[in-house]
Design a protein that fits this description.
The complex is a heterodimer.
Chain A: H1 2-13, E1 18-21, H2 34-45, E2 50-53, H3 80-88, E3 92-94, E4 101-104, E5 108-114, E6 128-134, E7 158-162, E8 168-171, E9 174-176, E10 194-199, E11 206-211, E12 217-223, H4 226-233, E13 240-248, H5 252-261, E14 266-268, E15 273-274, H6 279-292, H7 295-310, H8 315-326
Chain B: E1 2-9, E2 18-20, E3 26-29, H1 36-48, H2 51-55, E4 67-74, E5 77-84, E6 89-94, E7 99-100, H3 103-112, H4 118-126, E8 127-128, H5 137-149, H6 151-165, E9 166-168, E10 174-175, H7 181-334, H8 342-361, E11 363-367, E12 375-377, E13 381-383, E14 388-392, E15 394-399, E16 402-407, H9 410-426, H10 429-449, H11 455-535, H12 540-552, H13 555-589, H14 596-656, E17 661-666, H15 675-681, E18 682-686, E19 691-693, H16 699-717, E20 723-727, H17 735-751, E21 754-759
Parallel strand pairs in B: 3-21, 8-20, 20-21
Antiparallel strand pairs in B: 1-2, 1-4, 4-5, 5-6, 6-7, 9-10, 11-14, 12-13, 12-15, 15-16, 17-18, 18-19
Helix pairs in contact in B: 4-16, 5-15, 5-16, 6-14, 7-10, 7-11, 7-12, 7-13, 7-14, 8-9, 8-10, 14-16, 16-17
The chains are: A alpha/beta, B alpha+beta.
């Protein structure tokens, strides 16, 4: 909240007109109401900035688990105390499948898309048209990403995307801002915190990622050489959380030593230890993982396979590992 | 690559030892615990390029960490690799100027020289332990493939994942819809229950919050309305007092004005009564005059009835005179026939008409037989000789000077005479008929007046009667005068009646107005009495304030306004009443706070369950992808290595067996064999083209095959030859097999492989 306060103060100083939250603002619909209430109170007080909020949600298992703040029947956005903010504060607008468009005079119109392109009519006589979409978009159709060169997106000046929790510029007019503040390892890649600034006055819009240097970083590392080990040792463990996904067996002692020194910061995946004679196989395996497994599952699939291959002949232990890792 | 020398400092039992590998094969025979295995381990450690790893291998009793130096040759270049655990450095120096000090750079150098994955291949393939050549072929191959390609492990994990995920094996896979079956179902059931309870708690809570919000709203509205009510009541009170004062004053004035009007009306009423009396008197007078006229009229009418007989006689004589005059005119027209009787004339007429009829109906005909020219039918035409002429009655014929009268019959000549007489007497038949009508008229007139009436006597009588009728005319004039006078009096009487009626209406109206005014005066006085009670409570200040305002006040308008405001006040009171009811309702509904603790714990539980379910579902997704990756991994490895491996094994096996065997044949499209597949699907092909399952090979041939397979695997990664390190390869061999195996090693050396063998047993030459 402190960082959000800082960003809002800066936005007010610089005359920013709109702040957009493109989903997954809250990590569950089962949060106590005090959390969203505090959040929306903060936003509603900044009356000179307009806030556009889109519910999020995970694309996987949506029927059983809503995932983040999906706009389900029991969505926290439907709670009375949350709903009341959108009724009483003119500067807060929630985009939902029922009301997917928010128009701010002749200044701008925001169009919500929910794991799909916005299916709404264009508002006339508005200077800027901005799509706010939650879901997987990009060029990788093998991971079920929808392309952003779809004709229905051509009239938007900018497409604010949410879903992937790390900054990612997808086209010259579209970007994922990534997580505002990371609290955990991402299922893929390094997790940094920050937001993006979009200047619509230039064409194409100027998109700048502003990272929080003082926010915790959640990093994945492989220690397969002396150099990797040196890099690991040189990290600032005050703000870094490291998960070792692969290491060569000869570095075991060094990593254990680091783990003893920074118990909260260093974590070594089960099955991360690699014998030299396995490198040939791992190289092929890594290639296939990159090619076939979506980013959000890749590290987990890799960890499970590494561990499985290590314990292949001890089924019960492998099963125990899976149960402990997934906690059931 | 060929090893030239290996030197050790502080390394296990080899401290201070330096070995040169001049011969090929190089046999290092020594008793146990003298460093044979350490030599091979040391060479391997050197190529692992990890100084830290050396530390743990320090010679017992030594203070300093180990240093290992290995000298080798590649394509004429000599290179010295030094791994120093003391200063934790690695260095490769070559005669070609190579000088590298980073492990990654040294690995890349080896890769450039054709030794890709050298440390891995060294570890997995180039070092042969004591059992590697003696184990049974299928197990040995399986272990061999697994050591580099992890084939067995991949198979095992794949099978494990399939057991978990797949309902039916074979392509395409059919995945279980619920990987975690009952556990997942229980989890979902609990989650649904928590959600249901949560929904209920949230609904109750939401209702509570909504009711609380409504209560606040009702309280706010109520407070507002109560304030409005107080203000309105205060204002209304004052306005009502002002209204009472103004009304009182206005009523006083009104009462005064009404009393004045009452007086005026009373005077007016008296005037009307006087006028009414006068008009009644005039009316009486007129009645009397009319009665006189009626009496006179009666007398005149009696006189008039006397003249009726005279008039009747006059009319009778006048009529007679007219008949006589008509008779004179008829007789004048009859002239000489005046004395003719009606019967004689009628007989003549009948005779005439009869003769005329006979004449007309009689037909005659003549024929001119002979004549000079035509005979004239007078008045009708000409008839020529030979012609017939038909005629009616009579005809006159003329021929030259001859004129003939011809009759149709003799009777006709007689009738013609009588007709001529009648014509001579009466002229025409029409004259006779006219005479008949006139005689009939004369007869009728005479019948009406009698035959002996004298016109003069009648005219005399008529003169006398006319004189009598003159007196009647005068009487008529009298009657007319009487009638006109009556009409006049009647009109005047009617006018008088109308005036009287109008006066009475006015009087009645005035009486009504007077009664109304008196009623109003009564009401005003009553109202004044009532208002007086209010007005006498006014303070002096109020009275002073109201005095001037009351003068300007439109009381009706003000009264309406007060009424309107009273209605507003009533409405307000009703609303307040309703709101108070609502307030107590919401107070009741919000008297008990919802259980936040339960909500929190349900939310927490839901989150836990969702996360657990999410992890479970995620794991099944991870496992599905894992299975796909492993399947692809198998295919990739088979695709990349299978064909080359088979070809390579065949070639090496043929060479190692001096052509006794020409090759091996895989009968499965995969390098991933389980035990039985190895035994059944991999066959060795003999020179005579007969093939045998590898399990049936002799021990020696089996060792040769294992060696060939190992070298073939090395070839998959290296395109050059290297050194092979045999650690006690003959430990489990008898003399014969040892000899055979040594032969193989010599053959390998001849092939170009560097062979380094350590053994506690003597090496047969």
């Amino acid at each position: 909240m402190e960082k959000l306060r800082r960003v809002i103060e800066r936005a007010r100083r610089e005359g920013v007109r709109f702040v957009v939250f493109a989903g997954d603002t809250f990590d569950s619909n089962a949060l106590p109401s005090s959390i969203p209430t505090e959040f929306f109170e903060l936003l509603s007080r900044a009356t000179d900035i307009n806030f556009v909020i889109l519910p999020g949600g995970g694309s996987l298992h949506s029927e059983e688990v809503s995932g983040h703040d999906a706009y389900t029947e029991d969505s926290l956005y439907r709670r009375l105390e949350v709903r009341s903010f959108f009724v009483t504060s003119d500067n807060l607008r929630l985009l939902t499948p029922e009301e997917p468009v928010a128009v701010f005079g002749s200044e701008a119109a925001f169009y919500g898309g929910f794991f799909d392109y916005p299916r709404v009519r264009k508002v006339s006589e508005v200077r800027y048209h901005i799509a706010v979409i939650h879901g997987a978009f990009g060029r990788r159709s093998e991971f079920d990403e929808k392309p952003l060169d779809h004709p229905s997106l051509s009239f938007y000046h900018y497409i604010a995307l949410g879903h992937y929790h790390s900054f990612k510029r997808v086209s010259e007019r579209a970007a994922y801002s990534g997580a505002f503040v990371q609290f955990e390892f991402l299922p893929y890649g390094d997790a940094t915190s920050g937001y993006i600034e979009v200047d619509l006055s230039s064409d194409p819009p100027e998109i700048t990622y502003i990272p929080f240097e003082d926010a915790p970083k959640f990093l994945y590392l492989k220690v397969l050489s002396e150099r990797d080990l040196e890099k690991l040792r040189g990290l600032d463990f005050e703000s870094s959380f490291v998960r070792i996904t692969e290491y060569l067996e000869e570095f075991r002692e060094d990593l254990e030593e680091l783990k003893r020194r920074y118990p909260e910061r260093v974590r070594i995946n089960e099955g991360a230890e690699v014998k030299r004679d396995s490198l040939i196989l791992l190289e092929i395996l890594d290639e296939i993982l990159k090619r076939r497994v979506p980013e959000h599952l890749r590290e987990e699939v890799s960890e499970v396979l590494h561990y499985g291959l290590r314990l292949s002949l001890r089924r019960a232990e492998f099963e125990r590992f899976l149960r402990e890792k997934y906690g059931f | 690559m060929r090893l030239l020398k290996a030197c050790f400092k502080n390394y296990k039992v080899l401290d201070g030892r330096c070995l040169e590998f001049g011969e090929n094969p190089f046999f290092f025979s020594a008793p146990n615990e003298t460093g044979k295995s350490s030599l091979i381990e040391g060479i391997r450690d050197a190529f692992l390029l990890s100084p830290d790893r050396l530390k743990e291998k320090r010679t017992k009793g030594k203070d300093a960490d180990p240093v290992v130096e290995v000298t080798f040759e590649i394509e004429g270049g000599v290179y010295e690799l030094r791994v120093n655990a003391q200063d934790r450095t690695v260095r490769l120096v070559g005669t070609d100027g190579t000088d590298l000090s980073r492990p990654k750079a040294i690995e890349r150098f080896l890769e450039r020289k054709g030794y890709r994955y050298f440390p891995s291949v060294l570890e997995g393939l180039l070092i042969l332990k004591e059992r590697d050549l003696s184990t049974d072929t299928s197990r040995g191959l399986k272990a061999l493939l697994d050591s580099v390609l992890k084939s067995a492990r991949i198979e095992e994990v794949k099978r494990f994942l399939e057991d978990m995920l797949i309902v039916q094996k074979g392509a395409p896979y059919r995945f279980k819809s619920r990987v975690f079956g009952g556990q997942e179902r229980l989890l979902k059931e609990e989650l649904n229950e928590v959600r249901r309870r949560l929904k209920e708690v949230l609904r109750v809570r939401e209702e509570f919050l909504e009711n609380k919000r409504r209560l606040q709203e009702v309280k706010r509205k109520l407070e507002e309305l109560l304030k409005r009510r107080s203000s309105l009541e205060r204002d209304l009170q004052k306005e009502k007092r002002l209204l009472a004062y103004a009304t009182f004053k206005r009523l006083e004035e009104r009462t005064k004005a009404l009393k004045e009007a009452e007086e005026r009306l009373k005077a007016q009423l008296e005037r009307y009564e006087a006028d009414e009396k006068e008009l009644a008197f005039h009316k009486q007078e007129l009645k009397r005059r009319l009665e006189r006229l009626f009496k006179e009229l009666e007398e005149l009418n009696e006189k008039k009835s006397d003249f009726k007989v005279v008039r009747r006689e006059f009319e009778e004589y006048s009529s007679k005179l007219k008949v006589l005059e008509r008779l004179e005119e008829v007789e004048k027209r009859l002239g000489r026939f005046c004395s003719e009787s009606l019967g004689g004339l009628e007989a003549d007429l009948r005779e005439w008409k009869t003769y005329q009829g006979i004449f007309g109906e009689s037909r005659g005909v003549f024929e001119v037989l002979e004549a000079e020219g035509a005979v004239e039918v007078v008045g009708r035409g000409w008839v020529r000789p030979g012609e017939l002429y038909e005629f009616e009655g009579e005809v006159t014929l003329r021929y030259k000077d001859l004129v003939l009268k011809v009759y149709a019959s003799e009777e006709l000549k007689r009738i013609k005479g009588r007709l001529d007489e009648l014509k001579e007497r009466y002229g025409t038949l029409e004259n006779l008929e006219e005479l008949l009508r006139l005689v009939a008229t004369r007869e009728e007139l005479l019948r009406r007046i009698g035959r002996n009436v004298s016109p003069e006597a009648i005219r005399e009588r008529l003169r006398h009667l006319s004189e009598e009728l003159e007196a009647e005319r005068k009487l008529e004039e009298e009657l007319e005068r009487n009638r006109r006078e009556r009409e006049l009096l009647n009109r005047r009487e009617l006018e008088l009646e109308q005036k009287l009626e109008a006066l009475r209406r006015k009087k009645r109206s005035t009486e009504l107005e007077l009664a109304r005014i008196r009623d109003e005066i009564k009401r005003c006085e009553d109202e004044l009495k009532r208002l007086f009670k209010e007005v006498e409570t006014l303070t002096i200040g109020e009275e002073r304030e109201f005095r001037e305002v009351a003068l300007q006040l439109d009381i009706e308008e003000f009264g309406r306004r007060v009424e309107e405001r009273e209605a507003v006040l009533e409405e307000l009171k009703e609303k307040i009443f309703e709101l108070e009811k609502e307030k107590s309702l919401y107070e009741g509904l919000t008297s008990k706070e919802p259980d936040e603790g339960e909500l929190e714990s349900l939310l927490l539980r839901r989150r836990e369950l969702e996360e657990k379910l999410s992890r479970m579902l995620r794991l099944s997704e991870v496992l599905r992808y894992g299975l796909r990756v492993l399947s692809e991994l198998r295919q990739e490895i088979s695709r990349n290595y299978l064909a080359k491996f088979e070809e390579s094994v065949s070639e090496l096996f043929s060479r190692i067996t001096h052509g006794n065997y020409t090759g091996v044949r895989f009968e499965a499209e995969s390098l991933f064999f389980d035990g039985s597949t190895f035994r059944k699907q991999w066959r060795a092909v003999r020179r005579d083209q007969r093939s045998f399952p590898i399990e049936e090979l002799s021990d020696g041939t089996s060792s040769q095959l294992l060696l060939a397979a190992r070298l073939a695997l090395v070839r998959l990664f290296f395109d050059r030859k290297a050194f092979l390190l045999f650690d006690e390869p003959f430990a489990y061999f008898d003399e014969y097999r040892t000899k055979k195996a040594v032969e193989v090693l010599y053959e390998l050396a001849e092939e170009g492989w560097q062979v380094i063998v350590t053994s506690a047993k003597g090496i047969p030459k």
